[in-house]
Write the structure tokens for this entry.
Amino acid sequence: QVQLVESGGGLVQSGGSLRLSCVVSGFTLTSYAVAWFRQAPGKGREGVSCIAGGDDTPEYATSVKGRFTMSRDNGKNTIYLQMNNLRPEDTAVYYCATPRAPGYGCYGPPRLTTYDFWGQGTQVTVSS
């Protein structure tokens, strides 16, 4: 059974940092793409970053490039999102996700339609 559990959200001032974690089970990170998405109040879910199973180079949305870093620890079955220089517009619920099948690539910001399994989300609030 595929499961993804996010943690690490919270309230931070503008310019601050947070690190999100997502512990996964039921699939192997070396075979499956994983991604971070976010959803701000009143807006649609937006792809933030992704890593393909057979790759170590993340892709990012333009809005977070240079500020966010996605990484993966295969031994701990965990993916991370290090968020620096946070802005009020980064306020959202952050989700990790994976596709139903292995072998998907990551060629740019993740697309919603590629991902089938989702965590419950973790709230990030950035105050100005």
Summary: DSSP finds no helices and eleven strands in the chain. The chain has a mean pLDDT of 96.
